[in-house]
Design brief:
The chain is an alpha/beta fold. It contains 16 helices and twelve strands. It has two domains: about 160 residues, Rossmann fold (3-Layer(aba) Sandwich); about 180 residues, Glycogen Phosphorylase B (Rossmann fold, 3-Layer(aba) Sandwich), CATH 3.40.50.2000. Helix 2 packs across helix 3, helix 12 packs across helix 15 and helix 15 packs parallel to helix 16.
């Protein structure tokens, strides 16, 4: 689109991922662990802010945001903040002591960061609405700037074969795919329990649990699956990347994510990009878009809700599944393809900073 971007990071300039990044990075670290305090950030921003049309702060609760506020809140260079779901009230309910600590920090730091931003960017309408529920002291200019991903490789048949060659026992099965971190908030336990309820009536279905995770939780889930008599019906692949990851999407019939909290869910967008319907909870914040576009099914993040997701999928006719596959791809193309996301972000920056070029 003709725009030039650079990154400022509080990481150590000697870090491999900094050196390997395919673009200009000014790494001001090392920084204080955890909060990331760095005395070099504010002077650097004050000296260089005039070189840029806009500054985007990625995330909350670390010094990068407060430092940007200190340097830019009275500057002609506007700054924007991506909250990335970090204001979701789920965290308040799940970790009340951490939330109390955040309250001590909020009024003099993060509240000001959001209040004085040209706009606070939310990746979907649900995230914008939920953000208002975490702190009663809350004021900001809100904008919805979707998130997304690039289109996947298109050689679907070859990629599917790559995956099935790595896991040959999955051939000739209807694959139900979970792909993500094995983590308590992802609802992995709900998926296994719900699968137990429908497995006997759907002997051709195999659940694929793909992703890295906490060893203790993974063992606990595998033990529960064994107790339910599902050991042979669930394939644990570990983390998948590259062709194997895309092959897993293409080889599967549907993707399932019954999360208790999910700001966006890149894997959901990736499934849509592969023309795969998604079965998600209404705690995946893009559920409104999925439901509106008919790109999958949405239910509550409960055992009954997750069971209903699987039952609705299994009750769908081949024609209905084909229509959902087409709707899934349209949903991705319209809402989550990175090129469109970039265009909308540039438009929002222009609208909130009229002097930008």
């Amino acid at each position: 689109m003709g725009h030039h971007g650079e990154l400022v990071s509080l990481d150590n300039p000697d870090a491999t991922f900094v050196a390997d990044f395919p673009g200009k990075v000014t790494a001001l670290g090392p920084s204080v662990a955890g909060y990331g305090y760095n005395s070099r950030l504010v002077p650097w921003l004050k000296a260089h802010a005039g070189d840029y049309d806009a500054v985007i702060v990625n995330g909350l609760w670390q010094y990068i945001g407060f430092g940007a506020w200190r340097a830019l809140h009275d500057s002609p260079t506007p700054y924007f903040v991506y909250s990335h779901g970090m204001l979701d009230p789920w965290f308040k309910r799940r970790y009340p002591l951490k939330h109390l600590k955040k309250w001590l920090y909020w009024p003099w730091a993060e509240y000001r960061v959001l209040r004085d931003a040209a706009a606070v960017l939310f990746t979907c309408e649900e995230e914008r609405l939920l953000a208002r529920e975490s702190f009663w002291l809350y004021r900001c200019r809100e904008a919805v700037s979707s998130y997304g991903t690039s289109a996947p490789p298109q050689n679907a048949q070859a990629l599917s074969e790559t995956f099935l060659s790595a896991f040959p026992d999955l051939r000739q099965k209807r694959l139900l795919l979970f792909l993500g971190r094995i983590h308590e908030k992802k609802g992995c336990d709900l998926l296994i329990e719900a699968f137990a309820r429908v497995a006997a009536a759907a002997p051709e279905v195999q659940l694929v649990m793909a992703g890295p995770g906490e060893e203790a939780l993974t063992r606990q889930l595998q033990s529960r699956a064994a107790a339910l008599g599902l050991s042979s019906r669930i394939t644990w692949t570990g983390m998948l990347a590259g062709d194997l990851k895309w092959g897993a999407f293409y080889a599967s019939e549907v993707f399932c994510l019954p999360s208790h909290q999910e700001n966006f869910g890149i894997a959901v967008a990736e499934a849509l990009a592969c023309s795969r319907p998604v079965l998600i909870s209404n705690k995946v914040n893009i559920w409104r878009e999925i439901e509106e576009d008919g790109a999958g099914f949405v239910e509550t993040d409960t055992l009954d809700g997750t069971t209903s997701l699987l039952q609705r999928w299994l009750a769908s006719t081949p024609a209905e599944l084909a229509a959902m596959r087409m709707a899934a791809l349209r949903c991705f193309d319209h809402r989550f393809q990175m090129e469109h996301v970039a265009e909308k972000l540039v438009r929002i920056i222009r609208e909130h900073s009229p002097l930008s070029s």
